[in-house]
Amino acid sequence: WALLRHVHRICVEDGGFCSRHVHVGKANAFFVEKGRLQIEVWEEQRGYQTTTLGPGDSITIPAGVEHRFSADMDVVAYEVYWVCLDPADIKRYSESGVQGQENKNGVTVP
After folding, report:
1. Contact at 8 Å (CB) between 31 and 58?
2. What is the rounded distance in angstroms from the CA atom of residue 58 to the CA atom of residue 74?
3. First and final CA of the chain: distance in angstroms?
4. pLDDT of amino acid 58
5. Would you state the torsion angle of the CA atoms of residues 15, 21, 22, 26, taken in this order, to the nearest 10 degrees?
6. 93: region left, alpha or beta (phi > 0 left; psi from -120 to 50 alpha)
7. In the prediction, which pLDDT does 2 show?
8. Which of 9, 15, 29, 57 could form a disulfide with 53 if both were Cys (CB 3.0 to 4.6 A apart)?
9. Measured between alpha carbons, how far is 61 from 1 in angstroms, rounded to an integer?
């Protein structure tokens, strides 16, 4: 589930970088127009990975994954963000159903 996309054109100078960070509720992707952009990713399952993107290349970083980018030459790229909604984002405090009847969990609703 995704919505609310933002697109940013980023220009990174030779030697430039961003902080190591994580977006808890949004994913992002990088699309390189000019130059080379290194993307470092720290994932729980696969550990540390680095990918070098050139013109026409892209990568998607899922929500909740630590990452940062850096440039070893001037870069023009696009960073796209979108909000990731969790379909399991609900915390129930009572059962649902029809009063006096069993619900799908076999519980009689008071």
Report:
1. yes
2. 17
3. 35
4. 97
5. -50
6. alpha
7. 52
8. 57
9. 15
CA 98 to chain centre: 39
pLDDT at 3 (0 to 100):
63
Q: Which residues pair with 42 in a beta bridge?
A: 48, 66
Distance from the Cα of residue 83 to its chain's centroid: 8
SS3 content of the chain, % helix, strand, coil (to 5): 0, 55, 45
Contact 42, 67 (CB under 8 A): yes
The residue count for the chain: 110
Q: Hey, is 59 helix, strand or coil?
A: strand
Residues 6+ away with beta carbon under 8 Å from 108: 100, 101, 102
